[in-house]
Amino acid sequence: MRKFSFESAKPYLLIALGCLVMTVSLNVFLIPFKLAPGGVSGLSTVVYYVVNKVIPVGVLMLLFNVPLFLGGLRSRGRRFVIRSLYGAILLSVMVDITAPFTETLVNDYLVRFDSSMAVPDLLLNGLVGGVIMGFGLGMVLKEDATTGGTDLAAALLKKIMPRFSLGELLLILDGLVILLATIVFRSVKLGLYASISLYVSSKTIDAYIEGFHFAKSLMIISDRSEEIARRLMMDVDRGVTGLKGMGMYSRADKTVLLCVVKKQEMPKVKEIVKECDPNAFVLLSDVREVLGEGFQPLHTDNK
Question: Which regions span the lipid bilayer (predicted)?
């Protein structure tokens, strides 16, 4: 029998923390104001108001997730299935259990502290709710899990409509949920705010999973590549790779320099290139995350 250890429990603790963060987003910023930014949580929010709040949102989320799990997890690994079921059930329970407390927090304490809270700012709620939702969901996804929802539905539809990518199917499904909310609540404004929240949430997920360690990648073409490379290595302390190239017009051999630097190092790099060769051709591109020497250490994920 496998012994219990903190390392084995750590993913489940992080999933629980992610679900708690998502719960704050749903119960404080989204559900009370009829903001339904896609997904099963958005669909559950719509149905919750259609049935006059008789069925709790968490219960609805669990009901909608059951067929998705049954149909979409057969081809997934055992670890993913267990963690995702854990996340989906935990989120549903947390949403319903904490709903009375968050309602009291918003109505009794925040409104007393700031009377302007009595008139909700839907744009602000959508933005803040989207950021918090994306942060919480990012924590769950990073642990190789999910809380159910449209990602499983998209995987099912992918088998039926292989011409569409998963990203396109996710966008379609979330768009349909927002459209449904717009029709049911008879408010284009709510639909637009929900769209903003969905966009912000997706960007937050990307930033959390892919990292915040942005950098710049440079490709430098110059007749004085040796001098530029030497200055970059000495003055900026960055590695430089020389790639063999050829000018297609002149047919002359060229050395193309490839270098990755931090954003704050860019002014120094530009100054070096300008001093060495004002006629150099420099191509810059954004790099979201860099792993390796001089940047973030590269670790092997053994989870």
Answer: 12-33, 53-73, 85-102, 122-141, 166-185
